[in-house]
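Posting this for the archive.
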Amino acid sequence: MSRSNERPKRLQRTPLDRQLKRNLRVAARAELTRRARIEKRLGWPLVAAGLGLFVATLVANFAGVVLLPFDMHHFFGQVGGLGIAFTGFVWAMR
């Protein structure tokens, strides 16, 4: 049999591998402070809220609608939305 026809076998995960992975996840979670756990939990909703604000102000800009009364040029809505989304992403990926 030639070497070009041989395919490498995939590594099979054993129950021990799964247990070790679960133990590492639990240990990493236990090392987080209370504040870090709260920030991690709030991260993805903040990403969604920030992107929602950004898209809403972008659409309002093209439609000629004023979404926020203090933001006639939609600058603060777009920059603020991206800032909120970025902060949420950083928190979620801890």
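Helices lie at 15-31, 34-63, 75-92. The mean pLDDT is 88.
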